[in-house]
Specification:
By secondary structure, the protein is of the alpha/beta class. Helices cover 45% and strands 16% of the residues.
Length: 444
């Protein structure tokens, strides 16, 4: 990992300026051979102005060059950032010159991975970089930034400490029985401690589920029979003519998508073909895609004609298929309804009266007040490890209550301990011996 890597840090588009980033041992000496000024003698971060040359010594462009001596850098290595004019022709010439000097083009995420391996950030913080880049709302960006600053890691470290302490307590009793002054890991203590830690882990899991909604948004499927106004409702929500609207049933034959921000949550709307029996092959394909959209959706909105007082058998069937997911029954065309029943959600896509639906969607997500302010562990890797920790702790507690031998109980605790280390990216250095000696001063 010590070789010099190079990559364009800005989008590969024409602009006023671009940023080319390099990192690795020898990057200053490599730059000396291509820059009009010597930078390898610097002892602290320095800004230069000069000319970058190609391998034949021909000037490429005048640039601002920032040099950062390691280890106090983002990657922990010597880092150079070159800011030329934003022509991709210029950028490519500069990159080719450094590649000719022996640099390698960086792979995806390699700068962040070097920061992780050099101890500049843990794995949770490294993953937050990607969340920050992909954020589509201010709220998602704020949560990602907090994780990048280590706040999500701080939520988990006390849990990691409790698991490590309990596991080390068991292992020191097994490996060093002669130390009678060390607290005994009794079955009662193991059962009580694991239950306490499980509660903490469950809070993180719930927070992760909510955090995923804030960071990634949710898929919302608009479903219903033909000609109930699903496309009109989509257009009203998006405030643009996204879907074709017609009085002819079956106009929508594919899934039409659009994004909407409601109270800081990105809603990915899916307008689907009307679900009904049809002999038209193309329309039938659209109906099948509608049914798949229901499976994909996090929240389903069943759009009903507000003039109808009862749900049709087809609409009842849709409700049956949505079993287990938040379902909102929305009565469109309220302006044509003969009477309104209490407890029903009425809207009018034609008149733009859709705020009640937006509020109903947000309410269906059941987010806590902390969801927008508290960082969370929410990506699949993090959630998978949290669930593994929880299951192993539950198993250890049950084994203790069932009076299994202590060495068998420790198997589940070890698995929880390893998963906790992996969550922070410390798995390669996970050694219970270090925990034992640091916590109990065995052998001084």
């Amino acid at each position: 990992m010590s070789n010099v890597i190079i990559a364009l840090a800005t989008p590969p588009l024409k602009g006023a300026l671009a940023i080319i980033r390099l990192s690795g041992d020898g990057v200053f000496e490599m730059t000396d051979g291509l820059f009009s000024k010597r930078i390898s003698d610097i002892k602290e971060k320095t800004i230069f102005y000069g000319t970058v040359k190609n391998l034949e010594g021909k000037p490429i462009d005048t640039v601002v060059l920032l040099a950062y001596p390691g280890p106090k850098t983002m990657t922990g290595e010597d880092v150079v950032e070159i800011i030329p004019h934003g022509s991709m022709l210029i950028v490519n010439e500069i990159v080719e010159a450094f590649l000719g000097k022996g640099a390698s083009y960086a792979s995806r995420g390699e700068f962040s991975s070097r920061a992780f391996y050099h101890g500049k950030m843990d794995l949770i913080e490294a993953e937050a970089v990607n969340d920050l880049i992909n954020a589509t709302t201010v709220e998602a960006k704020d949560l990602a930034f907090k994780s990048l600053m280590g706040e999500a890691s701080k939520l988990f470290r006390p849990i990691q400490e409790k698991i490590a302490e309990l596991y080390a307590l068991i292992e020191v009793g097994v490996d060093f029985p002669e130390y009678t002054d060390i607290e005994e890991a009794s079955e009662a203590k193991i059962a009580a401690s694991t239950k306490e830690i499980v509660k903490d882990v469950e809070e993180l899991i719930q927070g992760g589920r909510e955090g995923k909604i804030v960071k990634e948004g949710v898929n919302i499927a608009l479903v219903g029979e033909p000609n109930v106004g699903k496309s009109s409702l989509l257009n009203a929500l998006l405030q643009e003519e996204k879907a074709i609207v017609s009085a002819i049933p079956g106009t929508t034959r594919d899934v039409v998508e659009g994004d909407l921000n409601v109270h800081g949550i990105a809603l990915h709307l899916l307008d689907t073909a009307g679900i009904h029996e049809t002999g038209d092959l193309i329309e039938e394909a659209g109906v099948k895609r509608s049914q798949k959209s229901i499976e994909k959706a996090d929240v389903v909105i069943l759009v009903v004609d507000g003039r109808e007082e009862r749900l049709s058998p087809q609409e009842e069937e849709i409700i049956h298929k949505v079993d287990g997911k938040p379902l909102i029954i929305c009565y469109n065309k309220e302006d044509l309804a003969k009477k309104k029943e209490d407890g029903k959600l009425y809207v009018s896509a034609l008149r733009g009266n859709i705020e009640p639906l937006k509020e109903a969607i947000f309410k269906a997500l059941s987010l806590s007040e902390d969801a927008f302010t508290k960082p969370s562990l929410s990506n699949p890797r993090q959630m998978g490890l949290l669930l593994a920790i929880k299951e192993n702790l539950i198993q250890a507690g049950q084994d203790a209550e069932n009076h299994l031998p202590i060495d068998l109980i420790s198997v589940s605790l070890e698995a929880a301990y390893r998963a906790a280390k992996d969550l922070l990216g410390e798995g390669e250095t996970a050694d219970i011996g270090d925990e034992i000696f640091s916590r109990f001063c065995v052998g001084k």
